[in-house]
Amino acid sequence: MTATVEPEVGKSRRRKEDERLITGRTRWTDNIALPGMLHLAVLRSPLAHAKIVSIDTSAAKEAAGVVAVYTAADLDPEGAIGMPCAWPITPDMAAPRRPVLASDRVNFAGEGVAVVVARSSAEAHDALEAIEVEYEDLPPVLDLEAALAEDAPLVHEELGSNKNAFWVFDSAEAGTGGNVEEALSSSEVVLKRRFRQQRLVPAFMEPRACVVDPTGAQLTMWSATQVPHILRVMSALTLGIPEHKLRVIAPDVGGGFGGKIGVLPEEMMSVLVANKLGKPVKWNESRSETMLAAHHGRDQIQDITISAKADGTVTGLKVELLANLGAYNGLVGPGVPILGAFMFNAIYKIPAYHFACTNVFTTTTLTDAYRGAGRPEATFAIERIMDELADELGMDPVELREKNWIKHEEFPFTTVCGLTYDSGNYEAATEKAKELFGYDALRREQKERREANDPVQLGIGISTFTEMCGLAPSRVLGSLDYGAGGWEYASLRMLPTGKVEVTTGASAHGQGHETAWSQIVADQLGVSFEDVEVLHGDTQSSHKGLDTYGSRSLVVGGIAIVKAAEKVVAKAKPIAAHLLECSEDDLEYSGGKFTVKGTDSSTTIQDIALAVFAAHNLPDGVEPSLDSDATFDPENFSFPHGTHLCAAEVDTETGQVKLRSYVCVDDVGKVVNPLIVEGQVHGGLAQGIAQALFEEAVHDESGTLTTGTFADYLLPSAADLPSFTTDRTETPSTTNPLGAKGVGEAGTIASTPAVVNAVVDAVRQFGVNDIEMPLTPMRVWNAVRGGGANAGGPGGEAGGGLGSIDASGGAQ
């Protein structure tokens, strides 16, 4: 009897890539050293808004080790080069040119004005101090509402306004729902709230870096990027380099969270300098440069109006956003709030919906995608106002959600935004989460503490969420004026010895692709996990792809691998029939083996690979190759969901917040590797909780970033976070053969409102209905003492300090 081979998909495999990553036996962009390589350092403006009167580089050119010093006049004398924006959300969207180096004006503190080229990095940075720049101050533009006033100073005078674009979705006009104004005017309850999404820094582990070698037949660029294929296309278009003469490599990349999705001025600058000198060059930034000049995330003002019947049935939702783009359009920055537009309705059957967003330019670092990209912002707003509505109606917040959510038997369900959710079971996830959390017992304890006037009050926060994952399909992205598709590419190469090489267009920066892809291929082709090698991040070995962002790696890139494997099997079948001397119709395929029905006569994919290599005995007309590729473009997004519950203790005498317990039950469809999923959820929770309690990028009244180091911009460590209780339910996606839904952003999307809801719930009896994030001790204390629900707003207290959370043994 043949032993059953345990499937790889579903197995908690330790990641293949971790051994080289954690032992340092790998190559980051900044590790790369080429013969004769020169080093770049960028002089950055200390001012947020100013005219450049003059730049004197003469002293810097004489400094030790300096090879050259360039300004915009040297690298782009015609002023023709501008960083690309791939998402013009409206035909009239304002698109000011973002230069490689500023020439006549700087528009945010940190914008580059000159670059030094030297024989070492230290010499390049030393020479920056010898460059003299004379500036003429211009008024900064910082407040989103003030920026839209008629007499407001302008970031870009040539535009005549600080408005970037105005984008609207209305369910009545789209034919997907009713009229919101009618719903608001006829409903028994109407509630309006304003929420603030503070500005965040992606704070990836590895700072940005770029190496360019112009000395070969191709120009080769190494970059710490999430998007090597997009970077190649955009670099070719931006600089006029023939695309086939440009090779882009993303080696191991130390995190991104959306922060490495851009096409950078520094990358274009490196290409220009390398070509000018004919020598390889390297640019790498310090941590402070990252926080100052790499793009930021979030930064929205959200005005939300919800209407309902007296029994809690929601009748309408109106959303008005102001979104801060910073000084320029990012690669996809203008479209980030538009992604959120389709998620404000979340898991609920909302019959009428109106969304309007105004994107605004300010003299701050530009914003772009940050983990979740629009969807965390939307989930925060709807989950916060659902809690507010529950309080208004005197209902339990879980009961209110259950009354309005889509029931499991109603799937597939077309939402008020026109999206079709294919599968889900919000009831099952919520019930499991409540059981793990001990929801009813905690509510009883909360009541007892309130009645006893305990100085430490208990709050319970809930967040139920769904998200649109797998940034695709291409037709939908096209309808939103996105500048690329949503497909993904993969190829499988069968080697003569039965080993497999996989090339994927999905470029990993910490997600564990090499492990998960190996598991998928092992099951599809019946080879061992160890016999699969995954190649990625190099446009020469993996020539085609759309890279990694938007939780699309598995549900798009992984499915491309499945499709390529199916083609390998299809190509092997006639060869197997020939070798086994039977009809193809008589063959069964399972686990990498072809068997003649009703017999024990069989052959494996590995046997066929060797026969193909020899090509001695193949059917007539069959080419000697099993190699196959596939491009997968899904017909729909995938829609993971979950329920997150948080218990927070708030010391009303000090404002200190302690997260007592955190439970989440997520449904991400079919799981390929539970260990990787668990890691993704934990990382996402850490980032979402950090937004709620710790992180905020703050500019002072002159536009200077005052949180430019980790001494001022607080990132929590593991010691500052609670232990998480995680679990899963599983409703497979119907839109892909694996049934997967995506998990990379789920924790970040759901956790922020769960924590804020918990803290507000703890102090609601003091008349508090909101506290602006991050919920620092001072802001919580001010709110309890009547200092205002939003006490300590923008420009106020910058960070939480290590006293902002006690995580059962963490910092106090």
TrEMBL record:
InterPro entries cross-referenced by the UniProt entry: Ald_Oxase/Xan_DH_a/b (IPR000674), Ald_Oxase/Xan_DH_a/b_sf (IPR036856), Ald_Oxase/xanthine_DH-like (IPR016208), AldOxase/xan_DH_MoCoBD1 (IPR008274), AldOxase/xan_DH_MoCoBD2 (IPR046867), AldOxase/xan_DH_Mopterin-bd_sf (IPR037165)
Biased composition (Gly residues): 792-803
Keyword Oxidoreductase: yes
Keyword Oxidoreductase applies: yes
SMART domains named in the record: Ald_Xan_dh_C
Region of interest: Disordered: 792-812
Domain called Aldehyde oxidase/xanthine dehydrogenase a/b hammerhead: residue spans: 23-139
The entry's keywords: Molybdenum, Oxidoreductase
Source domain of life: Bacteria
The protein's name: Xanthine dehydrogenase family protein molybdopterin-binding subunit
